[in-house]
Specification:
Elements: H1 4-19, H2 23-40, H3 43-56, H4 60-73, H5 78-90, H6 94-107, H7 112-124, H8 128-141, H9 146-158, H10 162-175, H11 180-192, H12 196-209, H13 214-226, H14 230-243, H15 248-260, H16 264-277, H17 282-292, H18 294-352, H19 359-383, E1 391-393, H20 395-406, E2 414-418, E3 426-428, H21 430-446, E4 453-463, E5 466-476, H22 482-485, H23 503-513, E6 517-520, E7 527-535, H24 540-544
Parallel strand pairs: 2-4
Antiparallel strand pairs: 1-3, 4-5, 5-7, 6-7
Helix pairs in contact: 1-2, 2-3, 3-4, 4-5, 5-6, 5-7, 6-7, 7-8, 7-9, 8-9, 9-10, 9-11, 10-11, 11-12, 11-13, 12-13, 13-14, 13-15, 14-15, 15-16, 16-17, 17-18, 18-19, 20-21, 21-23
Length: 549
């Protein structure tokens, strides 16, 4: 009986043969693997290898379709979840790709091929700090893997770490001198650094090993267009379009260069079709406006400016409302506290003279007063905004402690931690950040059915050369409907019967005071997911940055 590990080894070998320009051999090996799966009657892997053959023919939609069918037949396969993630990445559906790749990693932690795919998709979404962390984790298993070294080089180049990027790509080429992917990455890096001649030389080397490859030709064409050689660029992009007529990226680049060559009407027609095919592509829309409706392009910029102004206006209005809410909360808490103190005093006297028949009723009253006391505490916490007291904070330890304290409350649920070994050195108020994470965890526990999963993740980030951290709390369940998402952090808004609506408002207050951001990114009907992004040293920056910047 063939195991998944053996099938995966065949997949890896076909990828390696394809990457060194031996596509015919890769197809032959894949056909043999398909015959092996057919003989064993392994239906998921029959579809998986049919998909791989489609990929080797450049038929990305057929690759996605066959892989989806394979996964439907075996949804708990790490390998098939990984393949589905890669297939979604080829279709530029990166958020969906992340979902499958994360499931592969949940099923098989530190799965190198899934980490490779995860890094590539995160990089495509410009989440470069996370992308770098994922590929470093993959390289920890096999430091000389040329695929991983090439991806690492690309991510480092996008982070502006040029010397490290070129050192990494040279290591990739030393590990596998014939790697088409590494040659293509090096060509792109040289193009972005302004070395057009060097880039064209490496595109030619890559294409010589895989003649007619649509993506190599498209990248080559863009490089030529960037250097003003539009006629040559169009020739390359026409060849790319012939080789990969359904590849969205190839089609977009062809349309852009067509317009830059003075053929605005033809470019407009291509871009209109691209927007119909992919309504969420902002790049396609912007280029369409540029070529078809220059006036509309200007209007779009004005709309964006007006939107920014509207958001600023709403921010001021919210600040005024928050100040009023805080004052009201403080006064309310003070008044209720006074009445609570008197009620507890009367209850103590009552307990001294209580009969056994009334003891249960007294316990109920005491419990109710305790609940009122906890609500007052929330009101006080919201009304008395404490400035953060920054000190060295161990992110991993802080999250681990918060999770450990709540494990008993999450009985019957699966409470997971996904914390990378290396995190930036942070200067936060650890008590406040732990309070925020605890609130999100308690919220998740309240809304997670027994037998379902709650996951806490942390990843390093890099923004404009500065380090940061992303912390996410995700729970399986009903999720949050889109119409409620904008109001989640509004004081006194709650979806929970009996809730005060202050818990998430306090979390946002803490994160705002640390110059971070929080958002809900879950899928209604499937899961809720709260993501916090924080600079590693938010208060240090105050003294070093020009306030006018």
């Amino acid at each position: 009986m063939t195991t998944e590990a053996q099938y995966e080894d065949l997949f890896e070998r076909t990828d390696e043969l394809d990457d060194v320009g031996k596509r015919d051999e890769a197809r032959g090996l894949c056909a043999d693997a398909l015959a092996l799966a057919e003989k064993a009657g392994d239906r998921p892997y029959i579809h998986a290898f049919r998909g791989q053959l489609a990929y080797l023919r450049g038929e990305h939609e057929a690759y996605r379709r066959e892989t989806a069918e394979a996964l439907r037949l075996n949804p708990e396969s790490p390998m098939l979840n990984r393949e589905m993630g890669v297939a979604m990445g080829f279709g530029e559906r990166y958020e969906e790709a992340l979902e499958y790749l994360r499931k592969a990693l949940a099923l098989r932690p530190d799965y190198p091929r899934a980490l490779r795919g995860l890094s590539a998709s995160l990089a495509d979404l410009s989440r470069l700090g996370e992308a770098l962390d994922a590929i470093e984790r993959a390289l920890a298993h096999k430091p000389d893997n040329h695929f991983d070294l090439a991806i690492r080089a690309q991510v480092l180049a996008n982070l502006g770490r040029r010397d490290e990027a070129f050192a990494s790509i040279e290591r990739a080429l030393a590990a596998e001198p014939a790697s088409v992917y590494a040659k293509r990455v090096k060509a792109g890096m040289l193009s972005r650094s302004g070395d057009t001649d060097g880039a064209l030389e490496w595109f030619a080397k890559a294409e010589s090993l895989r003649p007619g490859d649509a993506r190599i030709l498209a990248d080559w064409g863009v490089c030529l267009a960037d250097s003003g050689r539009l006629g040559e660029a169009m020739a390359k992009l026409e060849a790319a379009l012939a080789a990969g007529p359904t590849d969205f990226g190839v089609r977009l680049n062809h349309a852009i260069v067509t317009g830059l060559s003075g053929q605005e009407a033809a470019a407009t027609k291509e871009l209109q079709q691209l927007v119909r095919d992919r309504p969420d592509s902002e790049q396609a829309k912007l280029w369409l406006f540029r070529f078809a409706e220059p006036r509309r392009a200007g209007e779009l910029e004005r709309e964006r400016l007006e939107e920014r102004q509207r958001q600023e206006r709403e921010g001021w209005e919210l600040a005024i409302r928050l100040d009023a809410w805080r004052k009201l909360s403080g006064r309310t808490a003070h008044r209720v506290d006074n009445q609570l103190f008197a009620a507890k005093g009367a209850l103590r006297t009552l307990k001294e003279h209580a009969s056994p028949e009334t003891s249960e009723e007294i316990r109920d009253i005491e419990a109710s007063l305790d609940r009122v006391g906890r609500i007052c505490m929330e009101f006080r916490r919201f009304s008395t905004e404490q400035p953060p007291k920054a000190r060295a904070t161990d992110v991993r330890l802080l999250i681990h402690d918060a999770v450990s304290r709540l494990r008993k409350s999450a009985e019957g649920m699966e409470l997971q931690e996904d914390l990378p070994p290396l995190m930036p050195e942070c200067q936060w108020d650890p008590q406040q950040i732990e309070q925020a994470i605890t609130e999100l965890l308690e919220n998740a526990i309240r809304h997670t059915p027994k037998g379902k999963k709650i996951a806490v993740e942390a990843q390093p980030l890099e923004r404009n050369g500065k380090q940061g951290v992303r912390i996410a709390v995700q729970n399986e369940g009903q999720g949050i409907e889109g119409k409620y998402k904008e109001r989640l952090f509004e004081p006194f808004f709650s979806l929970r019967p009996g809730g005060t609506g202050l818990g998430l408002a306090i979390v946002k207050q803490i994160i705002d005071n640390h110059k971070g951001g929080i958002r809900e990114t879950g899928k209604p009907g499937k899961f809720a997911r709260f993501e916090i992004e924080l600079p590693a040293r938010p208060f240090e920056e105050e003294s070093h940055e020009d306030p006018g910047d």
